[in-house]
Amino acid sequence: MANRNIPESEKLRDEILSTKPDGKVDILPVDLSSLINVKAAAYEFLSKGWPLHILILNAGVLSPLIKSTVDSIETCFAINHVAHFYLTQLLIAKLRESAPSRVVVVTSNSHAYTK
């Protein structure tokens, strides 16, 4: 499970393991607002030699303020789109190698609230 909020990830991991005690949930820190961090997380995952059968892209940010990331990309666009695309590109070979595999992109209807 890749996430920037490690304490919340640990809570979720514990919840999952309470229903499936023989399961295994690893936590991989990643900050999607930094492409260097995305690359480091992808390489850390790849270094473990694990298969990758499903990549769920579920990060999203919505902010009324226009801010930029350390990569000088508008924050909402960077996190909601660019980081997801970059992570997928970094992991696509592993997804193919691990077939059958899938990429799932979770979206919202937030666009309905824009003018």
Automatic annotation (TrEMBL):
InterPro entries referenced in this protein's UniProt entry, alphabetically: NAD(P)-bd_dom_sf, SDR_fam
A GO term, aspect molecular function: oxidoreductase activity
Protein name stated in the entry: Uncharacterized protein
Family: Belongs to the short-chain dehydrogenases/reductases (SDR) family.
Originating organism: Plectus sambesii
Keyword rRNA processing attributed: no
Listed Pfam families: adh_short (PF00106)
Coiled-coil ranges (or none): none
Keywords: NADP, Oxidoreductase
Lineage summary: Eukaryota, Metazoa, Ecdysozoa, Nematoda, Chromadorea
